[in-house]
């Protein structure tokens, strides 16, 4: 969750090959054009952490003074939200992960959807999202962040699917019992698996069978490649960016982007300043070193709310000294992802309310017309933008749903044959 945690991963140096520039648009972009695309596009954000606030009593219909997500700034701009069912690694102790997962699911279904039925509608499929858009409502979906939430149980995984979970991030910053994370390889006390364990591969297969998208944001590179090999449905990176543009292990290499695209998946660009901008990361490094001892002390706080508050305070202290990333950085990330993976394999996963710094020009959903204008000026068409904003993710969802139907049909046929024998 904390920006500090997000930038503590091991960094690697990549060589960047020259890429052909997007052809700039020659004619001016009009306000009417931007308004039309905003109205027609189904903007789908695949990762928003505001449930970590609503679970503690925040009403999403009121102004969110410390974050990016509130109903007034969502309405009229956002088509669908994947609310993050984030389960902090601290809940692994004494097997409290499932309890926290259920609380987070409940806050989305009770404090967001049920509390505001005129604005939100519970959704679990691509068709639900399209239907909500036609009704001028926001489709509310859920994705689990942190595979430790299932407590090593496929039964719990199935229960979460039944409650509405439609993707799961295989790891958070912590390696779990069956999958390696990118976030703890510098910790020599952690036992790693070289990717996915046999049970981890079973988790991926069961997600395919259920129709739950496999999310590889936060995973170690080897975990990504294992998941890609095992999955028979497209997978996603729900909130990651491009490592060639900002060299952080939370971002994807060009080879990973190509492999993801080859199997039909999408990378959903993260708006965290550190993931967007190499400049931001470089400037922040010495400040991070200075504050790291205090940060590690904050991490030892057992109470999750108090721990998050302490880390937020440290973030604010650091961010006051660091120039934030900008709209230009977001466009650069999208542009690079499109050039490497293709226009059909890029989307949006803001990580709003889960990071300490986002570009001021894109501080919430009501700012997206600025991104639309910038992409048009860069040379992207209305059709391109609609794909990036949500069309590509809808395609992935439909492919995952179709694969689940195929697997269930195959199982039914095999059961019938076995019974006949």
From TrEMBL:
Keyword terms of this UniProt record: Dipeptidase, Hydrolase, Protease
InterPro entries assigned to the protein according to its UniProt record, in alphabetical order: Dipep_AS (IPR000180), Metal_Hydrolase (IPR032466), Pept_M19 (IPR008257)
EC number: 3.4.13.19
Tagged with keyword Iron: no
PROSITE patterns xrefs: RENAL_DIPEPTIDASE_1, RENAL_DIPEPTIDASE_2
GO molecular function, one term: metallodipeptidase activity
SUPFAM superfamilies according to UniProt: Metallo-dependent hydrolases
Keyword Isomerase: no
Pfam families the record matches: Peptidase_M19
Gene Ontology BP term (one): proteolysis
PANTHER family cross-referenced by the UniProt entry: DIPEPTIDASE (PTHR10443:SF12), MICROSOMAL DIPEPTIDASE (PTHR10443)
Protein name stated in the entry: Membrane dipeptidase
Species assigned in the record: Granulicella arctica
């Amino acid at each position: 969750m904390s920006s500090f945690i997000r930038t503590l991963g091991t960094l690697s140096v990549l060589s960047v090959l020259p890429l052909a520039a997007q052809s700039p648009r020659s004619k001016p972009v009009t306000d009417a054009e931007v308004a039309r695309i905003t109205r027609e596009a189904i903007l789908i954000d695949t990762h928003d952490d505001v449930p970590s606030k609503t679970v503690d009593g925040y009403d999403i219909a009121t102004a969110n003074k410390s974050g990016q997500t509130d109903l007034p700034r969502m309405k009229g701009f956002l088509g669908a939200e994947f609310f993050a069912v984030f389960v902090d690694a601290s809940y692994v102790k004494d097997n409290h992960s499932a309890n926290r997962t259920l609380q987070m699911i409940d806050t989305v279904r009770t404090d967001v959807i049920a509390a505001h039925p005129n604005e939100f509608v519970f959704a679990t499929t691509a068709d639900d999202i399209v239907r909500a858009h036609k009704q001028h409502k926001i489709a509310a979906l859920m994705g689990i962040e942190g595979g430790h939430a299932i407590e090593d149980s496929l039964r719990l995984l199935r229960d979460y699917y039944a409650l509405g979970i439609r993707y799961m991030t295989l790891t958070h910053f912590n390696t779990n019992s069956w999958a390696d994370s990118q976030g703890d390889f510098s910790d020599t006390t952690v036992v790693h698996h070289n990717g996915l364990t046999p049970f981890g591969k079973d988790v991926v297969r069961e997600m395919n069978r259920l129709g739950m998208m496999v999310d590889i944001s936060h995973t170690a590179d080897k975990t990504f490649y294992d998941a890609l090999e095992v999955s028979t449905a497209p997978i996603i990176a729900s909130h990651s960016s491009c490592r060639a543009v900002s060299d952080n292990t939370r971002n994807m290499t060009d080879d990973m982007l190509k492999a993801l695209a080859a199997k039909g998946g999408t990378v959903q660009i993260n708006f965290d300043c550190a993931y967007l901008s190499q400049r931001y990361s470089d400037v922040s490094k010495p400040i991070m070193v200075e504050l790291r001892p205090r940060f590690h002390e904050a991490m030892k706080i057992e109470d999750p709310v108090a721990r998050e508050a302490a880390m937020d305070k440290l973030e604010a202290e650091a961010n006051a000294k660091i120039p934030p990333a900008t709209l230009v950085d977001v466009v650069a990330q999208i542009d690079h992802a499109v050039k490497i993976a293709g226009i059909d394999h890029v989307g949006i996963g803001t990580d709003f309310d889960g990071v300490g710094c986002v570009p001021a020009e894109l501080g919430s959903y009501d700012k997206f017309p600025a991104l639309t204008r910038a992409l048009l000026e860069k040379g992207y068409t209305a059709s391109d933008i609609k794909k990036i904003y949500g069309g590509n993710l809808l395609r992935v969802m439909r492919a995952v749903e179709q694969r689940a139907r195929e697997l269930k049909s195959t199982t039914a046929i095999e059961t019938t044959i076995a019974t006949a024998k």
